Amino acid sequence: MVDGPVLAGKPKDETDNDQAVDSVFSLTVNLPREPYKIQIMVSSQEQMQDVRQSVVEFPGTFQYSCFHLEHNGERINDYIELSEVSGLSSGSELTLIEDPYTEKEARLHVVRIRELIGAAGNRTDTLHGISAGLSLYDAVATSQHRNPSVLTDGQSTTGETVDAHAMSNYDFEALGSSTTLLPPVQPPPPKTIKSLSLSHWNPPPHYLRQKGHLLYLQVTTNEGEQHHITSHITGFYVNKSANSKFDPFPKAAPKNHAAHSLLSLISSLSPSFVSSFTQLQEYNNQKDPLATFQLTNTIPSNPWLVAPSTSPLYAHHSDMTRTQENYLMSGQEHVELLRDWNEEFQSTRELPRETVQERLFRERLTSKLFADFNECAARGALLVARGEVAPLNPTEDRDAQIFLYNNVFFSYGVDGVGTFAAEGGDEAARVATGKDVKGVKAVNDLDVQGLFTPGTVVVDYLGKRLVGQSIVPGIFKQRDPGENQIDYGGVEGKDVVAEHEDFVPVFEKLSRSLRVKKHPVWDKEGNRHDLEGSVETKGLLGTDGRKYVLDLYRITPLDIAWLEKHWVERSDEVEVTAGERGHGRYPHRMAVLRPELVESFWKAKLRAWVNEELDRRRQARKAKGEVETNGTTTSGSGVVTAGATTNGENVNGKDEGAAVNQNSERSELEQERIDISDFHFALNPDVFCGQVPQTDAEKVEWAQDEKDVRAACDHLWSTVIPEIIRDLKEGDVGFPMDGESLSRLMHKRGVNIRYLGRIAALAEAQGQRVESVRVLAIQEMISRGFKHVANRYLRYLPAPFAAECVAHLLNCLLGAGLNAHPTVEIDETLRSMYPEADLGFEKVNPEVLKHDIEFQVRQRYRYDLDTEWTSKIRHVQLLREIALKLGLQLEAKEYHFLEKPTTATDSEGIISNGVVKNATSNGHSTAAKKKKRSGSPTSSIASGLSRPPTTFTAEDIMNIVPIVKDATPKSALAEEALEGGRISIMQNQKEIGQELLLESLSLHEQIYGILHPEVARVYNQLSLLYYQLEEKNAAVELARKAVIVSERTIGIDSAETVLNYLNLGLFEHANGNTKPALAYIKHALELWKVVYGPGHPDSITTINNAAVMLQHIKEFHESRLWFEASLTVCEKTYGRQSIHTATLLFQLAQALALDNDSKGAVNRMRECYNIFLNELGAKDRNTKEAETWLEQLTQNAVSIAKHAKDVQARKLRRVNLTPHVTLAMRPHPQVGQSSADATKGANGGDPRSSIGLDSRSIDELMKFIEGDTSKATPKKRPGRTNPKRRGGGSIGGS
């Protein structure tokens, strides 16, 4: 049990005193109706409103929503903690008292009951796309209970439960299936009522409002009876109104039905309601609760492939109340939608943060507030982009127009007023907005007291970039003559610089954390101003007295090495080199270093300083002739041990959390302490930005600042980027699977996306080992180049033409192999409605688009694509990357990319070279759908003649969703607990470590809500930690949650989701559930085929793990096939003579022996022995073990050949060569994560485990075939329960 945040080393008497801070106990709640009493588990940390929510969600108390709770006859405030309620303890009783309704309570009650009884129907959300927040986990988990095999004639089996595993007849050569991303069609849910809506008699007239009338409803039961209901302050009752008569007063007995809850009233009106409602609850309970909960703290992910519009998944039902929901949610005046965002943000930031509980409340409120603002701003940006919001300055140029919607201020992310004219114009402005939102996020994460930021969101939609911000009070204020509009930093570019002493302390704190140096700048008069931040970063003293920081797009220095090579000022006097002319000038001058790079460079400088200090001390001691001894260890701020960490980060190692490699000559100084407070290093962000030092001293200082920035750029070019390729080549980190994971890996190391070309070039130079990185880098450059081209055509294009534009551009890129001359068909009536629309995309052909993409790649990434690159692209993977970057949702159907004849043996739904053949979606034939469309007037408006087929049509673009970039900060409190747990476990303090891990999990869930990307990541991290701690049940439960939450918030086919499925499969197998594990592994592999395609380097581990699992369930022949498939990928990646290949040959030889192929086993073991002999030498233990196995297998093969007819003798000899499985099962590292970190603690320190050989002797493996698997079944440990979860929900199982 976790008794609050327990800190390592805290005395026991102090922790005992803290028991009241967080204890878990049960309460009894007395109810006015059946079941009259319920018991709930609560934590003393929780507020009374959390208890209310527990009551509302409890199955027996669904009907209650408007009530309060009393203890000993006294009403309890909803917003106080349970620990503050006098006399409340375990076993105490609370009483539920029903409250009178207000109009708001009545409206929300109706909304809740509609959703609860399944009457809400489907919604078409303007922000959330089709199937937003989809999870496939339930379908994957249940697939293991069905026969996965398919008959040879293409007909599926009956689907009855059989004892089979998911890998039966698995086809390694089959390409990705579009149906992998689609949920199965489910039977419709039971219908409880026909309709529940607002009556057309709404709203109540004034004289009835005075009598307590709130709403009028209309209910049609399953029996076909229609009832008009009055919502009154006392509850709900059936009135005497009809469709043509208004009489909202109660009916006479015996029809005078009334109840405080609408649910209870409907139960009394419809005889079939109770049974159908029970069936509905059973139907809903078939799914995991995490898959059905509504997302409230994050925008759900949108799949890029969705089922066709004719699918039962998206059946559009009649529902009158759908149009009434805005009224039900926000009231008649819509005043509840109008929030003062800025005041909410800043007042939340000013909340106290002294105690853990204060920090928890503050961060929880902050997370919810940012989520609400992000969603509101994204919805407003969509309306602005579609022209639904009138500008505040309609006479200005379109790019300079500004908008106000729901108290959010919007502007276009372009250079509408010429601010960035010298930096690259619109390109520079677009980049600046993206950098600004990241800068705001960095400041929010630092949480500097007394410094405030506006809420900021960037939305990319239909080629437009919109910036939404909360309104800073005073930003539009007209200042008096002589006063500056800005109080600190550059006012009008760099010509006027303002200083304000009140900003110095807060900017100093900010700059220290960002490694920004205090430096001078000069205005146009040559006057010096000493600023704590960049001249571009502005401070504004709001009319509310708060200090705001604005324009955070340049908090780090320019990447001057890049700009000097690739940016040329517009001047006829500047000579452009031939190479530069070929690549074109880089689009903008906003190329800055990433904060991660600055931090990496700071650590490198600190390491060098520490080493120099150690050398200096060593030399001083030698000079004095003193005997070197270990110094006394002291503690204190700013003091570190040589090779220790500061702020939780390694200062003497290459990677965070890695062990420090110290020189042997310094071993005697291991415990010596060095005071790093004497170390000072920061970068000047304003160098190379036109500043002109005036005095010689200033020039010297400026020259040194420039030298430091150049050194940082060189560190990026010469050290960081090559290290990425080296780490990938050596297998030290997980390989990226797609463009997103590659970008994340680069950003984590501090590498900008503009270096994709260098990544590709370095990968190409390293050969086949990192070929996948080269392929991904080129694919990412092409998809980003296409995005820029598409945005150019979409930017000013009216929204009704967007689908035609996107489909045509996709045809030119991906469909040119099917139709080299695609054309666009646009409804002439629609064209005539927009006579001024620029439909330039019609003139694009494959050759033009190819040239445009090549130019974008050369210009932005300095990389020359192969002349035949269009013939080498992977169609499905490139289509996925483009769809994710543009927010496209495409119909999952057959897409023919090449002219390739199909045969009758083509499998259903298989994407062949990017072609989906005979695809069916949810029981609907897409071929039939296309046939239906071909005869529809929308498919061909003006021509009855058949035209050449194209890969995409406008109807295939089902939807376009916005891409949202926000500035939501991470929770420092939850991260501290997580890091503390990790450190405690590393220090072998397992009990304290596990308590802190549970505390971190609880904090993450409380602050972010359960459905959030950060919670998915902490579930994954904790599952790995519990797996290493042999807490298998807890690892499985957390991995399952990680899968569902990552599917719904990050993406059903994201790299993180794939890795979560792989780890879930591994943990299930370790827990003794091999067949479910195989189902998860299979789904991950199917996703992998869509995301990357076959042959990914990390798939070697996955395929090998599956082979081990198949051996565990004695599927020896299947296991052999999987080992062979793993060997094929390994040979292609590492080469035939690598140690990795030898390791797999070792395992394959054992698998062949198990499959009675003694000759093949000898041959494979001989190959393994030869490789080990050549690579490791004859004395290496792996070579010796391979030699021993080779002798055994050879002798056995000879014996079998001589006595082939003697079955009994062969049987006895078979026992002598029975190997057990063998490649060490290990979890997948996340992209960019060290493999050692992922497997730490899992292999017991055996050096052979690192290359996968079995660490046991042959004698220990002899019993496996005989069926003695007692040692193979892992010992189940009791699962740990999480006391923070109400109801005693188990993390680790029972």
Descriptive notes:
It is found in: Cytoplasm. One of its GO terms (cellular component) is cytoplasm. Its main location: cytoplasm. Strand 29 and strand 30 (924-925) form a beta hairpin. The strands form eleven sheets. The protein has a five-stranded mixed sheet, covered by helices on one side. It has 1294 residues and is of the alpha+beta class. The longest helix has 34 residues, at 696-729. Helix 34 runs antiparallel to helix 35 (1158-1176). It contains 38 helices and 32 strands.
Main attributes of the structure:
1294 residues, alpha+beta, 5-stranded mixed β-sheet, 5-stranded antiparallel β-sheet, 38 helices, globular, disordered N terminus, disordered C terminus
Compact overview of the structure:
With 1294 residues, the protein is an alpha+beta fold. Pfam families: CLU, CLU_N, eIF3_p135, GSKIP_dom, TPR_10, TPR_12.
SS elements, strand count = 32
Main sheet makeup: 5 strands, mixed
Strand content: 5-15%
Number of helices in the DSSP assignment: 38
Distance between the termini: 16 Å
- Helix amount, in percent? 40-55%
Q: What general outline do the C-alpha atoms trace?
A: globular
Give the strand line-up of the largest sheet. 2-1-5-3-4
State the secondary-structure class.
alpha+beta
Task: Return residue spans where pLDDT drops below 50 for at least 5 consecutive residues.
Answer: 1-21, 146-162, 570-581, 627-671, 902-945, 1208-1224, 1239-1294
Arithmetic mean pLDDT: 81
Radius of gyration: 33 Å
